[in-house]
Amino acid sequence: MEEVRLVTTTGGTYSIIMSVWLRRVEDMTVLERQLGERLPRAEIMDRSIVLPTPKHMGHQLDPRGKRMR
Fold first, then answer.
1. Which residues are CB-neighbours of 67 under 8 A, at least 6 positions away?
2. Burial state string for 9-36 with b = 16 or more CB within 10 A and e = fewer than 16
3. Which of 22, 46, 47, 58 has its CA 20 to 30 A from that of 7?
4. Is residue 19 within 8 Å of 3, Cβ to Cβ?
5. Do 19 and 1 form a contact (C-beta atoms < 8 A)?
6. What is the pLDDT of residues 8-54, one digit of tens each?
């Protein structure tokens, strides 16, 4: 799953936290379906969406989220 940027375990309410980068909000449904198929006992408890940023690590990004040259 190339969208996945970070997976970590926690000792809090949720046992796993996952951070992903998606190109479209609609891709969240696809990702959740894939997770359900691969991890049938897992339960998605919460989600949040962060709007795109024009820069990442000092690089200007185009509307597709790709680095501009």
1. 56, 59, 60, 61
2. eeeeeeeeebebeeeeeeeeeebeeebe
3. 58
4. no
5. no
6. 999 988 889 999 988 888 999 999 999 999 999 989 999 888 877 77
Answer whether 44's CB lies under 8 Å from 51's CB: no
Q: 56 or 64: whose pLDDT is higher?
A: 64
pTM more than 0.85 = no
Q: Where are the domains of the chain?
A: 4-60
Nearest-CA neighbor of 22 among 37, 5, 39, 45?
5
- Cβ–Cβ < 8 Å for 19, 10: no
